[in-house]
Amino acid sequence: MPDRIADRRPDVPASRLVTDMVPPPRFRDVSFDSYRADPAVPSQAAAVAAARAFAAAVGDGVSGRRRGWFRSRGAGAAADIAGPGIYLDGGFGVGKTHLLASLWHAAPVPVERKLFCTFVELTNLAGALGFAATVEALSAHRLVCVDEFELDDPGDTVLVSTLLSRLSEHGVRLAATSNTLPDQLGEGRFAAADFLREIQRLAARFTVVRVDGEDYRHRGLPSSPPPVSDDVVAASAEGDGVTLDDFDALVAHLATVHPSRYGPLLDGVSRVHLRGVRTVDDQSTALRLVVLADRLYDRDLPVVAGGVPLDRLFTPELLAGGYRKKYFRAVSRLTALSRDGAAALGSR
């Protein structure tokens, strides 16, 4: 009988929440050299040069207090990028996480003095340890990389902005990414303007580097493979680390597990099978699924699903609401993982 994620309840010590903050398996071996910049999009090559220069400067001892106000960098402006913060601004699937992880790998400081996490993981850490303990735990780092900086929850934005301000005062270098919404691509610095407004005290510490382009996960590919029958989902759930869950049971279980433990929930999993996937209209449920989707994507876990196609996981109302950036990202990532799942079945 296949293992069920819904039966797992990981007991994770708080110390692991910090030590696990390294690039996830999908980005464990990436580098600036392995980033495939689109020749038709000059900002991608410029972003590689800017991130490479910032990474090299992390170990040079330049104080963040010497830098000027929040600036935007265009192509060819990578040389003077050694300030305390860099912000990679762009749409879905243009390789910002690849660049951020490459920056982490390239920074010439010991592994234990640099940290890589998502915005959600950082808020979860503060919730688990408390604000003061989180500042103390992270202030010894030379570099903190925050992927998918989110501006849709004012409370979390203020929390992380304050936390990063404290870390910057301790001389910690900061790197962050975020997304421009799909229906706002081409509107220039929309995401950067939001970032500047919301982080306020941190604004002076970041240089904006734009990364343009199409979502590489879907270039020339169909939106989502068709779901398979629930019988096929169950019959193909074989092999080490393969799990089989009923969608509603998994959703109910996620409500009982703190999101900071969704990663450990997937320890030892090699492929995820879901029966009876349905469209979700409840926001709390949808946000938990977003965190799970991020952890699945981080770990490069193929998904085999029956029910509705994964690109119809969220209602149109949710996709048009205040958390739409999270939902679009989750759909993009789950669609890619469902293609991997379909390929896994095809190779059987």
**What is Rg?**
20 Å
Q: SS-based structural class?
A: alpha/beta
Strand content: 5-15%
Task: Let me know the largest β-sheet.
Answer: 6 strands, parallel
Task: Please identify which CATH superfamily of the largest domain we are dealing with.
Answer: P-loop containing nucleotide triphosphate hydrolases
Short structural summary:
InterPro entries: ATPase_AFG1-like, P-loop_NTPase. Keywords: ATP-binding, Cell cycle, Cell division, Nucleotide-binding. The chain is of the alpha/beta class.
Q: Would you kindly provide a written description of the structure presented here, covering whatever features stand out?
A:
The protein is of the alpha/beta class and 348 residues long. The protein has 2 domains: 5-12 and 221-346, no CATH class; 31-215, P-loop containing nucleotide triphosphate hydrolases (Rossmann fold, 3-Layer(aba) Sandwich). 39% of the residues lie in helices and 14% in strands. The chain has 12 helices and 9 strands. The chain has helices spanning 14-19, 42-57, 96-106, 119-129, 131-138, 154-169, 190-199, 230-235, 247-254, 283-298, 316-319, 324-346; strands at residues 71-73, 85-90, 114-118, 143-147, 173-179, 206-211, 242-246, 271-277, 303-307. A 6-stranded parallel beta sheet has the order 1-6-2-5-4-3, sandwiched between helices. A 3-stranded parallel beta sheet has the order 7-8-9. The radius of gyration is 20 Å and the shape is globular. It starts with 13 loop residues before the first helix and ends with a helix. The model is unreliable at 62-79 and 181-190 (pLDDT under 50).
